[in-house]
Amino acid sequence: MSATTTITVGNRSFVLDKEKAEQAYQAKKVINGRETMFFNILPLKYQWAYDLYKTMKNNHWEPEDITMQKDVEQWRSDEITDVERWIIKMGIGYFSAAEGIVGDNILHVVREVVTAPELKLVLGRHAHEENIHADSLVYMLSSIGLNPHECEAMFEDVPTIKAKNHFVVSNSRSLRSSCSARSWKAPSSTASSA
Ligand SMILES: [Fe+2]
After folding, report:
1. Which value, in Å, is the radius of gyration of the alpha carbons in the chain?
2. Cα of 129 to ligand 1 centre, how many Å?
3. How much distance in Å is there from the Cα of 153 to the middle of ligand 1?
């Protein structure tokens, strides 16, 4: 029977194989650590990231938690100016694209590079937050009664925004191809011992 070690996380305790736990701990790095799809969250090395993941989960919210009744009334009235309407439509159009770009990059670029499982939890949760942001825009569109294509088309001809999107998307593509080139390596002798 192999030697065991007991670790604690908050008020919970876990019994792990001592040798495997030590190997897993040593192999954990934010980047360029052990690549494995098997269970290796424990023992925790990046407690701060695990705590952050828990905090993020506890901050869950839904777009519908915010009532838009007052916003709808204002939109239908003459309380807000044409310039303000333009700003709102522009903001919704711009962020419709931005939320998708951020979420996609967190999952397919940043999370691919990170190897520490505690940080992967954080990044997965971050992508979930971007989904909520995107859903918030859907909620705004439906509440106010806006055409998303009209909002999107408003910034298509703005050169600075076009240049920024081109910069982000082209860099994301090149980073993504470098991620997929090293996507799966044959397990090393250390990894196969887990
Ligand atoms: Fe966002």
Report:
1. 23
2. 7
3. 20
